[in-house]
Amino acid sequence: MLELVNNVNDVLWAYCLIPALVACGLWFTWRTRFVQFRMVGEMFRLLRDSSSKPKGMGRHISSFQAFTVSLASRVGTGNLAGVATAIAVGGPGAVFWMWVMALFGSASAFVESTLGQLFKQPHSDSFIGGPAYYIRHGLHCRWMAILFAVLITISFGLANNSVQANTICGAMEGAFGWNAQMVGVVITLTTLVIVFGGIQRIARVSSVLVPIMALGYFLLAVVVIVTNISAVPRVFQVIVESAFGLRPAAGGMLGAAIMNGVKRGLFSNEAGEGSAPNVAATATVSHPVKQGLIQALGVFTDTLVVCSCTAFIILISGLYDNPDLNGIALTQSALQSEVGSWGPTFIAVAIFLFAFSSIIGNYYYGEANMRFMTKSRVAMTIYRLMSGGVFVMVGAMMTLDAAWSFIDFFMPLLTACNLVAILLLGKYAFRLLDDYRSQRRQGIKHPTFHRSQLPEIEHDLACWED
User: Fold this and answer.
1) Residue from 99, 136, 94, 118 nearest 25 by CA
2) Which site in 119, 279, 404, 406 is 20 to 30 Å from 268, CA atoms measured?
3) C-alpha R_g of the chain
4) DSSP class of residue 121?
5) Are 430 and 417 a contacting pair, CB within 8 Å?
6) Cβ atoms of 369 and 130 closer than 8 Å
7) Cβ-count burial of 452 within 10 angstroms (0-12 exposed, 13-18 middle, 19+ buried)?
């Protein structure tokens, strides 16, 4: 059964999703006039200005908090175990294709998060939105909105959390010999305490956890790279040669490098997948483009920084050719070879922080879409128990292959649904970007948007003042 699922996954990725992702990334890059490159400075300025919540926001979520929640979901097992799996299966060239996906996928991330902000709806704890909401209010296609809501609830709120829990348990067992079931119980109880506090508690935890874990891991990677600086040119050479099948041993792995690089790149940075817009919509900003730019920066942070840290640690160690190592075990062994016996312990702690933050971020994606489908408190309680409880425990006891196959099956379906929506609605993101740039050229530091600027959909923009 698992082999059949994997075969279906390969067909979906090779002939449907990869061409669609590349085409959309290139189109949005061209249509936004290379927004992800030209406005990097503006992205950092907005992130800096949004680090504190303005007075009068009450229970609303700041732009920085929304950024950290989305980064909490992005920066997880994909950065540690996923990168290792991509290299082990597809060779070092997979890293190159992860970079390509990040560079062009960030334009897709900008468009989808801008649309998430544009079509957000009012809610008691914060704003609420995402692809299901912009499909419903932008395309007026309820069945497609429901389909997306169901897919993301299953893939992120349930399946993805199993993958994260699986990796945590594997890391803890490898480093400390702890029983997977007992680790699963601890993760489950901690998760339930946080998710029952809603988006406010999730945002507070993420805004503290994410900067600490990302900075700590980055500094460790810098130490490894600096102490092996002479090996860095060779690492780049191996990546490029493998990426294009130039090495004799890698000639037959070109397809595997592209496939695994794109698959794990998407799993990690989520660009175009339709996940980040769910939390991007919660932010209180004066213009939708602001959060679109900040979320595009999240793709760079995830792949070009954190994923690259893991890739360089593994490639410098030279252990990627070992057929007995895969997933988090490869990352732990690579770090141990570079920093000594405490390497696996550090990775175990890092993977706990990375994956646990992803669990609570993934949970919220499901919550936002459950609220789109139903107002029932009973249904929400059941979802919380399933996402933060049952599927976390199931993940603790699953095999690595089963966990990855499960998420790989739902990801193409989910992404295809979102890509159709943002292709059809992208024109609004382009107009908003032109308006934002125009206001910035006039010297306006904080551009503003009013729904009367888009008269044809004005009645669908409930959260924007006239």
Assistant:
1) 99
2) 119
3) 21
4) B
5) no
6) yes
7) exposed
Cα torsion 332, 334, 337, 339: sign: negative
Both structure tokens of 215:
């900075």
Class of residue 466 by CB neighbours under 10 A (exposed 0-12, middle 13-18, buried 19+): exposed
317: which 2 tokens?
């160690």
Q: How is 241-279 classified by DSSP, letter by letter?
A: HHHTT-SGGGGGGHHHHHHHHHHHHHHHH-TTTTSHHHH
Torsional sign, CA 374, 64, 286, 141: negative
Q: Which of 248, 229, 228, 227 is nearest to 238 (CA)?
A: 248
Q: CB–CB of 410/159 below 8 Å?
A: yes
Which residues have a Cβ under 8 Å from the Cβ of 423 and sit 6 or more positions away?
Answer: 24, 27
> Rounded CA gap, 440 and 446, in Å?
8
Rounded to whole angstroms, how far apart are CA atoms 178 and 87? 27
Q: Encode pLDDT of 76-116 as tens digits.
A: 666 666 677 777 777 787 888 888 888 888 999 999 999 99
In angstroms, the CA 108 to CA 266 distance is: 12
Q: Where does the pLDDT of residue 308 fall: very low under 50, low under 70, confident under 90, or very high at 90 and above?
A: confident
Using a 10 angstrom Cβ sphere, with 0-12 exposed, 13-18 middle and 19 or more buried, the burial of residue 386 is middle
Compute the residue count for the chain. Answer: 466
- For residue 225, the one-letter residue type is I
- The angle at the Cα of 155, spanning 154 to 156, to the nearest 5 degrees, equals 100
Confidence of residue 265 (pLDDT cuts 50, 70, 90): low
